[in-house]
Design goal:
This protein is elongated. A two-stranded antiparallel ribbon has the order 1-2. It is 45% helix and 4% strand. It has four domains: 74 residues; 123 residues, Cytochrome Bc1 Complex, Chain D, domain 2; 37 residues, no CATH class; 119 residues, Cytochrome Bc1 Complex, Chain D, domain 2, CATH 1.10.760. The protein is mainly alpha-helical and 435 residues long.
Amino acid sequence: MGSSRMSKSLSQIVLPVAGGTALALSVALVVANLDYGRSKISSLEQRVEQTSLQAEAARNKASEEAAVVAELKAKVAEIQLAAIENATGGTNLTENAPRKDIAYGLGRAALTEEITAWDVDVLPDGRGLPEGRGDVFTGEEVFAEKCASCHGDFAEGVDNWPVLAGGFDTLADKDPVKTVGSYWPYLSTVWDYVHRSMPFGEAQTLTPDETYAIVAYILYSNDMVDDEFELSHENFPDIEMYNTGGFVIDDRPDREYTRWRGEPCMKNCKSAVEITMRATFLDVTPDEGGESRMDHTASENTPTFVASTDSTNTSVETETLEISALETDPAVVLAGEKVFKKCKACHAVGAGAKNKSGPQLNDLMGRMMGSVDGFKYSKAFKAAMEEGRVWNDAELAAFLAKPKAYMKGTRMSFAGIKKEKDLTAIIEFLRTTSN
């Protein structure tokens, strides 16, 4: 009886305790599930937000790339349009390239000294010239040392090297003599070329002062300045070249290009081409002077370019010595013949001698000045002939010593013979020359 009541009491105590524990566990489980759900939801919300941000960034990037592509397409279309306009003559091809305000992010800005090192060109008005000066006398010495081996002591040219002086009033001839004096329109071209490219094999070794001096001597050789002239960066723009007005602006892009720049014809071309004539140059500067001519001939023959000199010229040396042996010292005549090499580029002597850029000098002694038939003399020599002036030892010595001082206005581009013994020798040689 007592035992039965005890069991009932225990069961009444245990059941409520067990029920409370289960309830507590259930509540804890529910709370745990709620926390997990909230965490999961928060995580999902964060992922959704990140995905949205990434999608927005992708859309922005795609939009930017689309804008770049559109800009590039527009530029390609612009370039293609410009190319079409050029091909059809719609653009003046002599215009400067347009400036583009585009930064490509390459390289760096050039330093001032780097630009200066490359900016060496000289413009016709003198812009770009360095400070400096040089006179004719100094130029003659520098020219003789650095330039004469190719261009001659008096700018007359050696072999096939260019002649730099003379040639005035020949540009309309069949065979014009294009020199610095007769042809070049701007003195800046002379200065720039000499300073940048000369001497041959030693380019850019000349100082500015040496360049000014050489250019001054070239001007003097062309009878454009007197022997006391000094060229400098200050008076450079004042020099006007002989042929300044002989050039015109190239208007072919506007006048001609539209006629033939377009789609080329690639059909119905000529089936065969036949060569019917040839013209060949073999010697453009004959060593012995004389008149040059171009041979035109049929294709079956081989044309040649020859100097139409008289073959009897080869006997000048022997004949000269034979004559001089009777009248004067052969050694002096021979020395004078060597000095005369300075004159051979412009003057001829001996049998069959003809006028060149200067008159032939046979039978010079006792001859009236300016009297050789067929030669176009300067006004100074024409005046001397009208005065009845005659060549003799004294007159010839004074002239050869300093031609431009003796005969103001002469076109003879020769600085003069400095040594007395050379003057004596060449006069004795000229005394022996005759047809």
